[in-house]
């Protein structure tokens, strides 16, 4: 009995570290449903990821929710139709040897058939073609005495030296024949991975480790071959690393480690910048965003196996932090304005996953909602980094000062980009007055009917007035604080809202009557 009580206490204590998210539970794809939309003023406990039922996914968005690792497997038995507002996508992991088993005799007809099967099931297709490892390459290439690579760290893979002429010329020949097959121009094919060789599974990277790929002749030749093969649809190609030459050819990028949700801060290539006051912002003038090419992430490391010795306890010895990390990683990939994300074939916050599917790949001109996650973390070499923002901005000014509050521990993996001894996040900001600015490009200044959703901590007692200009004057909206200390979300319907304040002037103001208001997340939705 004492042991049972002790176990319960330990489990409760662990869960108490992340009390604002559900406990770990995997929801299969066919059981996922959107959060209920209610178009009226109301308050609920917890988060609100709902959008009006008419909101459809952006044509450019891709939600990879299934994977196939064998060309021999028919996809019509793997892929089930999904009645969800997202663009379901299957990733095909294809080994070179499967398509070129006898030198020069290509089996592109099988690949074409699998793509057509996916299309018939309502899925888009992304190709993950693998070349460099011994178990990826065809057996006939062994006859050319190609040496193996020396990796820069302990390797799980044995890779050929891909720069060797015997390997390189046959790789280029394969890519040229892929282009001639017509597969790159198939409508259902939306993406194709261009990698290199790596110690880990999957041909990661784009060139030799620690070397600028744009200075390496054989890497340039590889990139040019893919450009020939995908001529006219270059935006489908996405690289496993950064190459300016590849970007100039019109290729995109896939990073793939957003589970470490503070990585790539800052990163000028993908437009991630931090201003002098510590606010993280997006520079949309970079090629990747300006050209609207493939821009991907992976948010997939949520199997129980990641909490085992086999995976080096990547995120700690249990799954307790998983839903917090999943929640935050989803916000980050949208903050980065990704248009592709790879998931598992389940979700641990299904309502949020649906919301991602509805908003992924949007621009400020066509997004159904804008939002601001009022938060703060500490990044090595930078210090405090404030907020994840998607065209809705919170900024301090005279009389509108805020401070970070509601401290939560990060997953117990001590992310390498975090400032030492600062392995925690703040997930809200507190102030007597908090002001937010709507991006001037959204709605063109109004008037527009909107729903405003405010996720806050019910701390103290009093009221919070929500100030929004409308064509008929100011909207009269109010949050009532009752001191429950719960995380709650209030929804307000505002007709003919006018978001006409210029640049970072405030369009939405929260003003507290007594206790300072603790706000975590604000979302504005077109009706």
From TrEMBL:
The UniProt entry, under SUPFAM superfamilies, shows: (Trans)glycosidases
Matching InterPro entries, A to Z?
GH
Matching entries from Gene3D superfamilies are given as:
Glycosidases
Q: What is this protein called?
A: Glycoside hydrolase family 42 N-terminal domain-containing protein
What organism, scientifically named, is this protein from?
Pontiella sulfatireligans
Query: Highest lineage ranks of the organism?
Result: Bacteria, Pseudomonadati, Kiritimatiellota, Kiritimatiellia, Kiritimatiellales
């Amino acid at each position: 009995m004492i042991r049972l009580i002790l176990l319960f206490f330990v489990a409760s204590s662990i869960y108490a570290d992340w009390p604002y998210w559900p406990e770990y539970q995997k929801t299969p794809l066919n059981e996922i449903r959107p959060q209920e939309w209610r178009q009226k003023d109301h308050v609920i406990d917890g988060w609100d990821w709902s959008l009006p039922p008419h909101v459809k996914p952006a044509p450019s968005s891709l939600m990879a929710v299934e994977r196939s690792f064998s060309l021999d497997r028919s996809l019509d038995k793997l892929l089930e139709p999904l009645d969800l507002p997202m663009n379901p996508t299957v990733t095909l992991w294809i080994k070179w040897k499967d398509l070129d088993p006898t030198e020069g005799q290509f089996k592109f007809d099988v690949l074409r058939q699998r793509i057509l099967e996916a299309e018939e099931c309502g899925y888009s297709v992304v190709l993950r073609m693998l070349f460099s490892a011994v178990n990826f390459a065809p057996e006939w290439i062994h006859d050319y005495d190609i040496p193996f690579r020396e990796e820069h760290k302990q390797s799980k893979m044995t890779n050929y030296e891909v720069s060797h002429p015997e390997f390189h010329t046959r790789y280029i020949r394969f890519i040229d024949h892929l282009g001639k097959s017509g597969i790159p121009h198939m409508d259902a094919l939306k993406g194709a991975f261009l990698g290199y060789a790596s110690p880990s599974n999957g041909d990661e990277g784009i060139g030799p480790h620690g070397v600028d790929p744009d200075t390496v002749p054989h890497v340039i030749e590889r990139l040019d071959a893919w450009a020939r093969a995908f001529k006219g649809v270059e935006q489908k190609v996405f690289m496993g690393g950064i190459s300016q030459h590849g970007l100039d050819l019109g290729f995109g990028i896939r990073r793939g480690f957003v589970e470490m949700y503070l990585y790539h801060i800052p990163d000028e290539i993908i437009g991630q910048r931090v201003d002098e006051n510590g606010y993280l912002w997006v520079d949309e003038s970079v090629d990747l965003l300006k050209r609207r090419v493939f821009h991907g992430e992976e948010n997939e490391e949520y199997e129980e196996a990641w909490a085992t010795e086999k995976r080096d306890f990547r995120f700690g010895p249990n799954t307790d932090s998983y839903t917090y990390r999943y929640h935050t990683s989803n916000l980050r990939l949208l903050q980065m304005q990704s248009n592709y994300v790879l998931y598992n074939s389940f979700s641990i916050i299904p309502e949020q996953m649906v919301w991602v599917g509805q908003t992924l790949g949007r621009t400020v001109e066509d997004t159904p909602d804008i939002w601001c996650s009022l938060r703060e973390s500490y990044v090595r070499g930078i210090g405090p980094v404030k907020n994840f923002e998607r065209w809705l901005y919170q900024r301090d000014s005279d009389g509108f000062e805020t401070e970070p509050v509601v401290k939560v521990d990060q997953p117990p993996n001590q992310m390498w980009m975090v400032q030492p001894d600062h392995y925690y996040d703040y997930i809200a900001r507190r102030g007597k007055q908090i002001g937010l600015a709507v991006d001037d490009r959204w709605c063109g200044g109004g008037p527009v009917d909107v729903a405003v959703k405010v996720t806050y901590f019910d701390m103290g007692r009093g009221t919070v007035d929500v100030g929004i200009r409308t064509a008929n004057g100011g909207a009269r909206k109010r949050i009532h604080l009752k001191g429950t200390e719960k995380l709650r979300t209030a929804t307000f319907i505002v007709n003919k809202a006018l978001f006409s304040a210029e640049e970072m002037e405030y369009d939405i103001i929260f003003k507290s009557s007594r206790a300072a208001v603790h706000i975590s997340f604000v979302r504005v939705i077109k009706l």
